[in-house]
Amino acid sequence: MTENVQTSAIMSAGMKVLRETLGVIEAEIFITNINRNQSDYTKWREDLWEDLTLHELLERAAKAEEKYGVPKGVQII
């Protein structure tokens, strides 16, 4: 599998956030547990945006589109 530049940038940013937030040791423990338990990320995101209004969610989506672009195959309607 080849990584594209966007994926590399997101991975790098995510690792930086983990290190800065948790520290190096705790970040390693977090990553090890995610890999070991084969966590289903869909579970934690079920209620991720439940406190947002539709307007707030659309604003966040627009900002993400500006920052990251639109993935191939996604049609904006």
Describe this structure in words.
The chain is mainly alpha-helical and 77 residues long. 66% of the residues lie in helices and 0% in strands. The two termini are 30 Å apart. The model has no long low-confidence stretch (mean pLDDT 84).
Features:
77 residues, 66% helix
Based on CA inertia axes, which overall geometry fits?
extended
Mean pLDDT reading: 84
Q: Give the distance, in angstroms, between the N- and C-terminal Cα atoms.
A: 30 Å
Total helices: the number is: 4
The strand count comes to: 0
The secondary-structure class comes to mainly alpha
| Uncertain spans | none
Helix proportion range: 55-70%
Evaluate the radius of gyration: 16 Å
Order of helices and strands: HHHH
Largest sheet: none
Content of β-strand: under 5%
Q: How are the elements arranged and paired?
A:
Layout: H1 5-22, H2 24-37, H3 41-44, H4 54-68
Helix pairs in contact: 1-2
Brief synopsis:
This protein is mostly helical. It has four helices and no strands. The protein starts with a helix and ends in a 9-residue tail after the last helix.
